[in-house]
Write a structure and sequence with these properties.
By secondary structure, the protein is of the alpha+beta class. It has five helices and five strands; from the N terminus they run E-E-E-H-H-E-H-H-E-H. The protein binds a DNA duplex through helix 3 and helix 4.
Length: about 170
DNA sequence: CATCAAAAACTCC
DNA sequence: GGAGTTTTTGATG
């Protein structure tokens, strides 16, 4: 079922993120498109006032995170997914700024210590990167694991927080 | 609607 | 390096 999603570009020093808002809140957030292909954004004129408010909060939080500071305000997130995914995302949101967690930790936090792989899948299905600190989730080895939005982004975001990655060598 | 099969950003031995 | 556990998603009958 396709809801009416309003796509609004969030301009940050690191690029132009694309935020998707539903009638309930922020439901999707994408990294800037490579290749200069700007996504088609909804016309500002038809965007409800509340969505503009959400977007202000989103953009502010985004900028703060990119600047290496904890966001003060979060927009309402309209997380759509399975129960498992919601659980994982909620656990992700509990991660404090500057802190990192492993997939195993998340798995244990939601009561499925063996479901680390499923957690990885849920994180991969995370519709809202950065706002949901999926980039703060590392593998148990302290490795970066992977990242759908691009490993460079994960690396950059973690570097902003002063987190050292053991990307060195094999 | 129920069942089968494959895949996923991992972890342990 | 290989095997294991859990969940999600799409196709098939």
């Amino acid at each position: 079922m396709k809801k009416t999603l309003f796509k609004i570009p969030a301009v940050t020093p690191d690029g132009e993120f694309l935020a998707g808002y539903s009638e309930n809140g922020l439901t999707e957030l994408s990294f800037p498109h490579p290749g200069g292909r700007s996504a088609r954004a909804a016309k500002k004129e038809i965007i409800p006032a509340k969505m503009r408010g959400w977007h202000a909060a989103t953009e502010a939080a985004l900028k703060k995170i990119l600047a290496g500071r904890a966001p003060v305000k979060f927009p309402p997130l309209d997380l759509v997914g399975t129960d498992f995914q919601k659980k994982v995302w909620h656990a992700l949101r509990k991660i404090s700024f500057g802190q990192t967690k492993s997939y195993g930790k998340i798995a244990r936090a939601i009561g499925r210590p063996k479901a680390v792989r499923a957690v990885g899948g849920a994180c991969g299905a995370n519709p809202i990167p950065v706002l949901i600190p999926c980039h703060r989730v590392l593998a148990a080895n302290g490795k970066i694991g992977g990242f759908s939005g691009g490993l460079e982004w994960k690396r950059r975001l973690l570097a902003r927080e002063g987190i050292c990655l053991s990307v060195g060598g094999s």
